[in-house]
Design goal:
Blueprint: H1 3-23, H2 25-31, H3 38-61, H4 68-93, H5 102-124
Helix pairs in contact: 1-2, 1-3, 4-5
Length: 126
């Protein structure tokens, strides 16, 4: 999978997350077995801004040539998605989230693998 494809996929996923967190935060929380409240909705809407920003960055960088900046995008996304996946599992183990949390964890793991593949294919093409 090329960086371009990974960037487009990431942009799509993150922009979809941004819209969902912005306009229907309770939908995601309910799927995860978390009771929606004014506080969780507030945090979800604020997270929407971050997801939107990351989505726009990847959309605009989709045609970027191999560079330190492109590597930085990949490294940052790997760290973020890996941490999100680990945190999702931890919250599930501690009973703070339900089995619905496994869906985003699986998506995050797939994204990490795609980012690693894109980063590796860049290194092998040197």
């Amino acid at each position: 999978m090329s960086f371009r494809n990974v960037a487009i996929l990431t942009a799509f996923i993150f922009l979809a997350l941004a819209l969902t967190w912005m306009f229907a935060p309770g939908a995601l929380l309910s799927r995860w077995g978390v009771d929606p409240s004014g506080s969780t909705d507030l945090l979800g809407r604020r997270a929407a801004a971050l997801y939107a920003g990351i989505g726009v960055m990847f959309l605009q960088a989709r045609n970027a040539a191999p560079s330190p900046a492109r590597s930085a995008l990949l490294s940052g996304a790997i760290v973020a998605c890996l941490l999100l996946a680990v945190l999702g599992i931890v919250e599930l183990i501690h009973g703070h989230a339900g089995p619905g949390m496994l869906v985003p964890v699986a998506i995050e793991v797939v994204l990490v693998m795609a980012f690693l593949y894109a980063a590796r294919s860049r290194q092998s093409s040197r």
